[in-house]
Records
---
Amino acid sequence: DIPVSADLEAGYGQTPETVAENAKKAAAAGVVGINIEDGTKEPCRPLCDETLMEEKITAVKKLNLPVLINARTDVYWLNADAPGSRLQAAFRRANRYSQAGADCIFIPGADDAGTIAGLRKGISGPINVLAGSHTPSLQILSELGIERISCGSAPFRAAL
């Protein structure tokens, strides 16, 4: 009876069709939200092509599943661009993903109030941040207009 959101990483597939099929399987299992990320885990190319990410989101959205699509950009998490250009890269990616049909934009690694406030100003639609030891309080995040907060693996690591 508790809503569950699943982290589908990069969709567990390279093609939009495979990602959509995996989202369909997750929804059939009862998942009400999914994360799909643009990180590649490749050191020489840390982020996937923006168009491919848009196509993945669009393919999932076309299924009309009762699932929230939380599109994750790893610009900050993977230090993908030069520090001075990360904010603009995050804006560009986030807004493209929203236009493709993402319901929320997840930006892990953005953990200071100034960066988060800047993201809020440049991104239309709900924003999700990753809570951590340097993240502002829930009250401050709420005041900044952040709609969703994820814990990630922090509770698991704390338990260990």
---
Amino acid sequence: MDNSPLVTPKDAPTQPRVGTEFDREMMQRCLLLARRALGRTSPNPLVGAVIVKDGEIVGEGFHPCAGEPHAEVFALRAAGENARGATIYVSLEPCNHYGRTPPCSEAIIAAGLVKVVVGMVDPNPLVAGGGIKKLKAAGIEVVVGVEEADCRRLNEGFVHRILHHQPFGILKYAMTLDGKIATTTGHSTWVTNQIARQTVHKLRSTCDAVIVGGNTVRQDNPYLTSHQQGAHNPLRVVMSRNLDLPTTANLWQTNTAPTVVLTEVGANPEFQGLLCQQGVEVVELDPLTPKRVMSYLYDRGLCSVLWECGGILAANAIAQGAVQKIVAFIAPKIIGGSHAPTPVGDLGFTTMNEALSLEDVEIRVIGSDCLITGYLPNS
């Protein structure tokens, strides 16, 4: 995805850049390191750290998963005595509280570092500037905001979880040029090209969960995995009120990725038992709505959720604030059909000025297809 042509609005605002060119280069290195743990750190953020002395990298690291040491600790271990008098670059403000691991701010002070370059302030109220304040009080020079936009984008799921107490929702769909996600018979294999599908697989590997409705299971029998050797597979979530689902489905094969089926209280106990025998987790929610589902997934510690559902569920997810970002693939195909399904169902809008205009829009060419990403207003 990153190597494809990119088009952004010409009037997109430009922010003054913080730090030197070398600072920005090192911060991008931090982000590159942090991405090695995509999909694996929730409810913690993705963080990378690089220690530099006399213009050379002497240590680096990233946070691999919750419960493991933070990025700064790995970088300090790698640097050893070379950390004394050096500069550390870290994509997120060092923590200043005791959780599963000790405060990184104290480790930095103890190591004798003289400068800390921070990508962004941690939105977590337990940190929220406290780490920076402690470092400055210890006489360490601190620079904040280097490549901040990229740092925030990498951790948009974590930031949204902290600020709004629910996971960050991404609605992904693929449609034809005339706005259809399937034919009138429901056939949808394949709307987009293979390169676009591989892009979706990579997107899944960055998310904590992927959600579909019962109709998607019945029509498409998806796997919802990353299809990549060694890559992270998200938690696969099926929403079904009545559990009118097939007894055999790829999603019930839990040896490669876990599956949880969310249903209403008391729905089809016999089928619930069948799913449990196959290793599928069944959870009853009241009510079974996108908003309630996101609250449940927040309680499970998730940061980012990918909605790969049909139009009706997608519309409900948008209306209930469960979606913040849109990832839309558009294939140069026309299939027609007045009753062929569309990616988003009825939102109740009757005039064009009610339309949801995406913000911070990016357009990429993926093979012969077009990929449009953007954020819903006030997301």
---
Amino acid sequence: MIDKVFLDHPRSVEESYLEHAAFAGKFSFKLFLAASAALVHAVIPCLFEKTASTMIAEMYAKTHNRGK
């Protein structure tokens, strides 16, 4: 059960549990920054016009082929 809950997915992307936790934590922080930029852009459209979409595209590029 412990393996299934905590280790199967990190292994599927060739990471240890701690490596995966660090990657996911950084990813979460970047998503928070992208969401913040999008929120500011929603209120003041001339600010951060492409920031959130650029950040998300970069994150996607780093994740879409992991573990393959």
---
Amino acid sequence: MTEKIGFLGLGHMGGPMAANLVKAGYDVAAFDPAPAARDKAREDGATVVDTAAAAATGRDVVITMLPNGKLVLDVYADLLPAANPGTLFIDCSTIDVADAKAAADLATAAGHRALDAPVSGGVAGAAAGTLTFMVGGEAADFAAGLAVLEVMGGKVVHCGGAGVGQAAKICNNMLLGVSMVALSEALVLGEKLGLSHQSFFDVVSTASGQSWALTSYCPVPGPVPTSPANNDYQPGFATALMTKDLGLAANALRDNGVDGALGALAAEIYTRFNQDNAGRDFSAIVTDVRNRSTREGAQ
């Protein structure tokens, strides 16, 4: 087992991920600029350090879970010179494919190894250690990092070379965003037509319209007791994060000449909703569909 891990980014996702590594017996040096995140990591058994560079010093693996690609690249400028030669850098952030490739290039140019390994599964998956990892990078590097990733995830998939893990994440979340908007519109239409939420669920969950968004994350209270809809839309997966991911997808659609009308429209819908609802779960989009609808039709 790789003994020493550096972990940077101890927020809603990174904090539980680092805690699971500690529980599995890894020596984790953790860093985050937020005092509350550092305090929680300390409670969970990690060794909290004062700088980003210190989290990479003397580590076998360095994991980052950060908000955006620019921050990843900026942090790598501090981490790479501090790390021992051959350190395996695993970036679990969700960022642009080009940024992921740039980060991998920086790491390898500095004599290290690199994987992009974004995740799916939300805060609950991070806490339970059941995340899905979509990994890009060299096969040998994937093999070297597999044991660490398996501690934090229930499924780890090697998708291809550098940046391809991010490609898988962007495609997955574009599909999820489109699915949630479509599901919300169908639910509100059902309301208008006199169909109860439970009857809608009982039919559609076993019919051709079935989806993960419905059966695992139903956006209205009742049918799926564990969904955020039953907890006043506390995330979960925040609208701000879905908006970011759909923006990445929309950029990728445009840059690669894909006729992705639904993906682009979902990005527009969530960008609008995000203005006043960034901290709510992304499934709360159903409330926006409902609020923007009238008995006679959508405004």
